[in-house]
Task: inverse folding
């Protein structure tokens, strides 16, 4: 089971986070992402990446980094992650 991304009835993004309990079949739980905190968009970007949607991952990562509310302490790591997404998308297109 990979992480699926959905938009909830209230318009907020939800990420289904897979996990396994004591070797049983994979289960999942939904996690609401508060879009008022742009660092959470990086979590959404990762969910899109893991579900195979590199283009959406790039959009979410860029949106996070463009926000004036994005925490400075995470900017370098988030920018490096954006570059990895860009390289992966370029490789996928070739």
Result:
């Amino acid at each position: 089971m990979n992480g699926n991304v959905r938009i909830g009835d209230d318009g907020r993004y939800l990420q289904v986070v897979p996990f396994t309990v004591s070797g049983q079949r994979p289960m999942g739980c939904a996690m609401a992402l508060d879009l008022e905190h742009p660092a959470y968009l990086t979590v959404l970007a990762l969910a899109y990446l893991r579900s195979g949607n590199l283009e959406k991952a790039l959009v979410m990562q860029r949106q996070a980094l463009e926000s004036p509310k994005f925490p400075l302490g995470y900017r370098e790591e988030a920018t490096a992650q954006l570059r990895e997404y860009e390289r992966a998308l370029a490789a996928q297109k070739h």
Summary: Helices lie at 39-50, 54-66, 72-93. The chain has one domain: 4-93.
